Amino acid sequence: MDLDGALTVFGLTEDATPVDVGETYRRLRKPLLKELNKFDDAEQPPDLVEQLDKVDTAYKILVEEIKPPAPEQTQRTGGTGTGTGAKRTTGRVSFARGDVLAGRYELEALIAHRPEGDTYRVKDQVRGVRLGLKVIAPQLMADPRRRKTVLRGLLAASRMNHPNLARVLDIHPLQQTYA
Fold first, then answer.
1. What distance in Å separates the CA atoms of residue 98 and residue 111, rounded to the nearest whole number?
2. Distance (Å) of CA 178 to CA 40, 126, 130, 140
3. Alpha carbon distance 171, 83 (integer Å)
4. Where is 73: in which H helix or E strand?
5. Is the pLDDT at 162 greater than 50, yes or no?
6. Fewer Cβ close by (within 10 Å): the C or N end of the chain?
7. What is the pLDDT of residue 80?
8. CA distances from 42 to 49, 52, 55, 69, 129 (A)
9. Pick the residue with more confidence: 88 or 45?
10. Residue 104 burial (CB < 10 Å; 0-12/13-18/19+)?
């Protein structure tokens, strides 16, 4: 799929903004996910899975092609708490479909993009199951105190077992972030 095909899938024109892309992606994806959730993994209709993959592929193309250069994300470092601390640039780690993280998790699709990090649908190549993988934003892991808090929370969550909670199975360092 090329840029024109992705624009067609989303019903957008070349002058679309990143906000247009994001809003359209959510609008197109939500009903597909809602419909797919009615089925077990083995019973999912191939046409719905194909439509979802098409929307995800178009989104990935549009995000790469349409978004202007991302503004630098900054984080306060030091100072007295009055907003006078120096700033340093931080960046997000991005991955593409088919990338393998931690030597075993093959990325299939971006599920959510949040300030604390991105969540991906992945296939565990060792166990052969599909999972959700959260990649913690680098700016959370850059500060030792915040990193300790995040890791402590992940370790506590890994000990919990409840049907309404997502289980933490593994914690792996990836480049300058964690998944």
1. 15
2. 30, 19, 19, 10
3. 33
4. strand 73-77
5. yes
6. N
7. 39
8. 11, 16, 21, 41, 12
9. 45
10. middle
How far apart CA 21 and CA 110 sit, in angstroms, is 14
Beta strands 86-90 and 173-174, pairing class: unpaired
Tokens read off for 130: 């599909």
Angle between helices 3-10 and 46-66 (to 10 degrees): 120
Do 109 and 56 touch, CB atoms closer than 8 A? yes
Beta-carbon-side half-sphere exposure of residue 112 (alpha carbons within 13 Å): 13
Q: 60 near 94, Cβ under 8 Å?
A: no
Query: Which candidate, 137, 119, 126, 148, places its Cα nearest to that of 175?
Result: 137
Read off the pLDDT of residues 75-109 as tens digits, 9 standing for 90 and up.
333 433 333 333 333 355 667 788 888 888 898 88
Query: What is the overall mean pLDDT for the chain?
Result: 77
What pLDDT does 123 receive? 92
CA distance 163 to 178: 25
User: Kind of pairing, strands 100-101 and 105-114?
Assistant: antiparallel
Q: What is the pLDDT of residue 136?
A: 84
Residue 97's pLDDT is what? 83
Question: Per the structure block, which two tokens stand in for 150?
Answer: 């995040």
152 CB burial (10 A radius; 0-12, 13-18, 19+): exposed
